[in-house]
Structure formats: structure tokens, C-alpha cells
Amino acid sequence: MDIFERITTDRGPIGQYQKAGHGYFAFPKLEGEISAHMKFRGKEVLTWSLNNYLGLANHPEVRKADADAAAEYGMAYPMGARMMSGQTKKHEELERALAAFVQKEDAFLLNYGYQGMASIIDAVTTRNDVIVYDSESHACILDGMRMSLAKRFVFPHNNMENFEKQLERATRRAEQQGGGVLVITEGVFGMAGDLGNLKAIADLKDKYKFRLLVDDAHGFGTMGATGMGTGEHFGIQDKIDLYFSTFAKSMAGIGGFVASQTEVVDFLRYNMRSQTFAKSLPMPMVIGALKRLEMLKTMPELRENLWKVVDALQSGLKENGFDIGVTESPVTPVYMTGGIVEATNLILDLRENYNIFCSMVIYPVIPKGDILLRLIPTAMHTLDDVAETIAAFKECHEKLKSGEYKTETFQDISKLKV
Q1: Which of 286, 278, 281 is nearest to 81 (CA)?
Q2: Can you tell me whether residue 46 is helix, strand or coil?
Q3: Separation between Cα atoms, residue 242 and residue 104, nearest integer Å
Q4: Counting Cβ atoms within 10 Å, is residue 367 exposed (0-12), middle (13-18) or buried (19+)?
Q5: How far is the first Cα of the chain from the last one, in angstroms, to the nearest whole number?
Q6: Cα 393 from Cα 377, distance rounded (Å)
Q7: Which of 276, 265, 266 is nearest to 85 (CA)?
Q8: Which CATH number does 76-298 carry?
Q9: SS3 state of residue 354
Q10: 76-298 shares the fold of 3-53+300-415
């Protein structure tokens, strides 16, 4: 069969809904200044779908740093990959600052978080190595393992008994092949908001020989006494061998970094294909990241306000009978029951009649028959925003349970007024 002929008939598990949801449920356009209140289809909505945890995306100091850097350097400088012609003192300064903050010897800047994580796994493992990973790991981890030649064993999410069994298998296999073991998990799991069992994993380093890679995209800036991340939260930052995070969450930017001991970071500098063959991170993003990191370190009130909103939202939802799972982070999932048509009608009602914008997650990301509404609190939200959202959720949940959202087909969103 011709490739193009096949893709016109098999649109994929999510793509099959393209005609029913494009521009509304998928690829929606939020407009206006980045804040808790933005414009969707011409009207203001209370927005809970931005990973702008500390509210830095539109902070005046950040905007000024970004604008000044763009005015001085433009968006192209430096040209070329870091290894060839894209190295600057500012890139090195940011790496030193990041390494110091997360208490590692050195750090390496990455152009993108997703691309970076995949490339880290590819670079540090060989066909003789074995990877042990959590079943709920992010897609960037899964894609990194697809690129790697290493054998891999998966353990059920946060199941430490099974994890140790997989670790035993991996250790035997690695010894037979003359390789090593890499354990991969996340600090904060971005869908359910629960934490990786980092303490229990780290404790097993006394019994087994392995290296630990932690994706802390949602933990950096939000978790721990200083915002260092989930390793700080558990008191095991020194046990993390490869610490990774992205700038796309608390830092409200583009890019990311990996931190480790000096010789490991030097190895990555010369062996990560995603960086060797890609243009250097533009100077305005580097200088902007330096400013964001400074604010993250020196303005604890941002994190304190975030957690004030988180605590109010999560306690309010639980007090009103909502199931928010086992989240221990700002990520706030709200679990309901219903099919895809009910889910879309629920979201339509929230957006059109209550002016509440949040993300909807359905099968195949979660099991069939489940609906997950994912809320991301930020330092920009207020307690009034929380109260308004909980009131809207209560009314919509009653409609869902009473069958009001059950219809035969998807509503034609093209007929909605803009």
C-alpha cells in the first residue's frame, strides 16, 4: 500500500478525531497577554492549561530582559552549533549557574527538553547496557529508549517491589554483557501529579550498582525548600546521577539542561547528537533564562503564592467530593467517568457557558470510560479564580452524572458563534 494512501485511512488514535475537534479541543488558540485570564474565540476565559508555574512568562522583569537581549543580539546570534561556532560566555555562565543551583559539578544546555532527554539516553547507553524505567515515563523517555540499543525492563508505576525484581534482572543481564544499568524515572509525573519514588530508588543504590536519571521537568522550580526540585524535596539530590529539566515549565521559556559530574557532562557535550548537529540556543533565550533563574532563586514569594493557590484548589476540590488522585505537586488532575462524546460536551459547556479553559485527557492516554480534566495552578491565579472554578466544576459534574452530556454524536463546533 502507498504510504500516503495508508495515512489517509488510518489517522492514528488521536488524529481520528481531527475533523470533530481541530481548532477547539485540539490546537485551540489562546490569545492575549499570558496570564490566568486570556482570550479564547473572542472572549475572556479563566485559563488552567499553562505550565507557567511561577508566573514568569509575562513578568515585567522577564519581558525586559528578553526584549533587551533581542535588541542587542537579534534572534539569530550565535550562528551554528555549540561545537562549531555557537559557543558564547553567556551559554557557559548559564550552565555554571544551573549546575550550582542543582548542586552538580557541571551542566549542559539543551535546545529543547523533549529532544534533549531522548538524546541523553541515546548518548549514555550502548547495546551492552540495560535500562530500567517506570511505566508512566514521559514520551521523550520512551522515544529516547527507541533510539538506544540498550535492553530495557519496565516496572509498573512506582511499584518498588517489582522495580527491585527488574533491577535484579537488569543487573544479571548487564553483568553477562559487560554493561551497566541505567534507571530512569520522573520527579513529578506530569499527568497525575504524583511523585516518583526517588527515595526508595536511591536507597537501593547501596545494594545494586546503577546510575539514576531523573526527568524533573515539573519539579524544577516548584518542589523542594528552595525550588531545586524533587530531589531536594526527598533529600536525595546527591543520589541523582543525571538531573534533567526543561525551561518550558517554571522557567517559562524554551530549552533545557542536564547536570551531572564534570566528566559525564563533558562526554555529553561531545556525544549528544541533538546538540552536535543543531544550532545553538539563541542569545535572547540564554540571557532570558539567566534572568528567570535569578528570579526563581531570589523571589521565594513566587513559589509561595503558587502553593497557596495549589493548596486552595486541591483542598477545595476534595472537600467537594472530586477525585484528584494522589497528586503531591501543583499538577491537579480531576477524574470523572464518561465517554469521549460526554467529555467533549463537558468541555464545551465549561468553555462556552462558564468561561473556564482547562485541558481534557481521554483514551488512549488514559483508560476508556475515564475523563481527566487537568488543571495547572500558577502564581498568577487568585483564590477567587479557585472559587469560581470549583463552583463551575460542581455544576458541570452534576450534569455529567445526570446524563445531560450524553448525545449521539459530537457537537458541530464549526457552528459555534465566535
Answers
A1: 278
A2: strand
A3: 9
A4: exposed
A5: 41
A6: 15
A7: 276
A8: 3.40.640.10
A9: coil
A10: no
Grid cell for residue 139: 514520551
Number of H helices, E strands in the chain: 15, 14
Whole-angstrom Cα distance, residue 189 to residue 215? Answer: 9
Count the Cβ atoms, other than its own, within 10 Å of residue 352: 17
For 97, other C-beta atoms within 10 Å of its C-beta total: 16
Closest CA to 396 of 417, 373, 416, 375: 373
* Cell numbers describing residue 403: 446524563
Element (H, E) at 266: helix 262-271
| Grid cell at residue 324 | 484528584
Cα-based angle 344, 345, 349 (whole degrees, multiple of 5):
115
**Domain boundaries in the chain?**
3-53+300-415, 76-298
CA gap 296, 177 in Å, rounded: 44
Which set of grid coordinates corresponds to residue 110?
539543551
Residues 346 and 29: beta-carbon distance below 8 Å: no
Q: Please give the Cα distance from 399 to 252 (Å, whole number).
A: 36
Say if residues 184 and 141 touch (Cβ distance below 8 Å). Answer: yes
Beta strands in 122-260 (DSSP E): 130-134, 151-155, 181-186, 211-215, 242-246, 256-260
Whether the pTM exceeds 0.90: the reply is yes
Lookup: cell for 234? 526527598
CA-angle at 311, arms to 307 and 317, nearest 5°: 145
Give the residue with greater pLDDT, 411 vs 322: 322
Which is it for the CA torsion 214, 218, 222, 223, positive or negative?
negative
In whole angstroms, what separates CA 295 from the centre of its chain?
20
Q: Closest Cα partner for 202 from 239, 229, 168?
A: 239
CB count within 10 Å of CB 127 equals: 10
Q: pLDDT digits over 335-394, tens only?
A: 999 888 899 999 999 999 999 999 988 877 778 888 999 999 999 999 999 999 999 999
Cα(144)–Cα(133) distance, integer angstroms: 12
Beta strands in 344-398 (DSSP E): 356-357, 359-361, 370-375
| pLDDT tens-digit series, residues 172-212 | 999 999 999 999 999 999 999 999 999 999 999 999 999 99
| CATH fold for domain 3-53+300-415 | Aspartate Aminotransferase, domain 1 (3.90.1150)
